[in-house]
Design a protein that fits this description.
Number of strands: 10
Largest sheet: 3 strands, antiparallel
Shape: extended
Strand content: 5-15%
Number of domains: 4
Order of helices and strands: HHHHHHEEEHEEHEHHEEEEHHHH
Strand order of the largest sheet: 1-2-3
Oligomer: single chain
């Protein structure tokens, strides 16, 4: 080894030793740097000297150190409580994004492939007028603007009208691709969405892209459990019943033709609605009387049955749906005190929801997106709730019939439920007989023979 290289090596070793060893305080040199948090803890652990206590420097130093440590701990805890942005399975976060599209000053209704539900399923929220932004933090932002409707151009000929329709459809398809492609390359929402979103698939052979829809279970209402559905119905009824003075007249409220509101009220559990929202309505703890505890107000029950609830901010005279965030101004359907007529004569509580709302939309509530399913065969939210009430009523009737052997006069609701049960059983037996007869005919046509005996095979 050369002399110059060895000299440089010794100098480098001395530099390392001088850095690693702390200098003495009497030498007048600078002290080595230390961790600020460790220094603060050491100052808190050391008792202040008499001189510092007398002058007050120790107290000020201790207070400032405590403030610094508390600020550090508070920042750490606040960062730990931050919610993740990419949670496609969280229904509450999906509804939070969907609620941002509620103000009409921000969002106008769009075609179903690019409506607010589809944007919310793909991780977008509405931040400004017709502008959506990614909630995942990728910084993507889009402005949704479609050509005007064709109905506004009635003076044009049929060829131009058809051309404008085709242009509008192409723009819708482009925005439909931007549901996922609008995110940046590193964004997780680009490759994964909530269930029920349109998912694009691209063929490598250049055949274009095909989109299909998955089961939309993220928007489904929690009404499949009859007990939970009835308790939620009771909570909504109790809150709406406090606004009886602001509700429109019963003649103003319209209901679907296939629903009998009187039947639903007659088969309610005993004791409905109860005194407080926290008391559950179970068959074992409910009152044994056939009559209801209080007289049911049909207007409040009609709104609660179709999913309407009091607004969260407590605004007077307003009801809202917590699934589609549509709001109802009750004063528009109520006559004025001065004798003026209401703005609207009728209030259809079922059709005032948005078209995609699971309270009235069968595919949205049933969680299916298959093209083979017929929409009329799928049950919406209020139909599932009605079926749950009938199911609970049939169970109560059977339980009471087995517990009390004495004959009692059945009510109209009891007769309807028993008749429907008997009809279902008879139809099921008829279907079974028809199935077995078809099976026998198929076997005869194919000449199906039984297996040969073991003895014949051995011979």
């Amino acid at each position: 080894m050369s002399y110059a290289l060895e000299t440089k090596k010794r100098k480098f070793t001395r530099v390392l030793e001088s850095i690693s060893k702390p200098l003495a305080s009497g030498d007048g040199g600078a002290k080595p740097p230390t961790d600020p948090l460790m220094a603060a803890r050491e100052r808190l652990a050391e008792p202040p000297s008499i001189k510092k206590v007398r002058v007050g420097e120790g107290v000020l130093d201790k207070v400032s150190t405590k403030t610094t440590v508390s600020r550090i701990l508070r920042t750490t805890s606040s960062s730990a409580n931050l919610r993740p942005n990419f949670v496609p399975w969280d229904r509450e976060r999906f509804l939070e994004r969907l609620e941002t599209f509620r103000p009409v000053t921000r969002w106008l209704s769009q075609p179903s492939p690019i409506n607010e539900v589809e944007w919310a399923k793909r991780g977008w929220s509405c931040t400004d007028y017709m502008r959506v932004a990614c909630v995942g933090g990728c910084g993507a932002s889009l402005v949704v603007k479609l050509p005007e409707e064709v109905d506004d151009f009635e003076d044009l000929d049929s060829d131009k009208v058809q051309e404008r329709k085709e242009v509008r459809q192409k723009v819708v398809e482009e925005y439909r691709k931007l549901l996922s492609d609008g995110h940046k390359e590193n964004c997780l929402w680009r490759s994964k969405a909530c269930d029920g979103a349109y998912v694009p698939f691209y063929y490598s052979a250049g055949l274009g892209n095909v989109t299909f829809e998955l089961a939309a279970t993220i928007h489904r209402l929690q009404v499949t459990n009859p007990d939970n559905a009835i308790n939620a119905l009771r909570d909504r009824y109790l809150k709406i019943s406090k606004l009886q003075d602001q509700l429109p007249a019963r003649e103003t409220i319209e209901l679907p033709e296939q629903l009998s509101l009187k039947e639903m009220i007659d088969i309610l559990p005993p004791g409905f609605p109860g005194d407080s929202p926290n008391n559950s309505l179970n068959d074992d703890t409910s009152q044994q009387s056939d009559g209801k505890e209080n007289t049911i107000d049909e207007r409040s029950f009609a709104f609660a049955f179709f999913g309407w609830d009091v607004v969260k901010d407590g605004s007077s005279g307003l009801l809202e749906c917590r699934a589609c965030f549509r709001r109802l101004g009750l004063w528009l359907y109520k006559s004025k005190e001065e004798g003026k007529e209401a703005v609207y004569e009728k209030l259809p509580v079922h059709s005032e929801h948005m078209d995609y709302c699971p309270w009235i939309n069968g595919p949205a509530q049933s969680g299916t997106g298959r093209a083979t399913d017929r929409p009329e065969s799928l049950s919406s939210g209020w139909q599932v709730l009605a079926q749950g009430l009938r199911t609970k009523h049939r169970r109560r009737v059977k339980t009471s019939a087995s517990a009390t052997p004495t004959e009692s006069v059945p009510t109209e609701a009891d007769t309807l439920s028993l008749d429907s049960t008997a009809t279902d059983e008879a139809s099921q037996r008829a279907k079974d007989r028809e199935w077995w007869s078809k099976l026998r005919r198929v076997r005869e046509a194919l000449h199906v023979k039984g297996p040969k005996k073991a003895s014949s095979q051995s011979k």
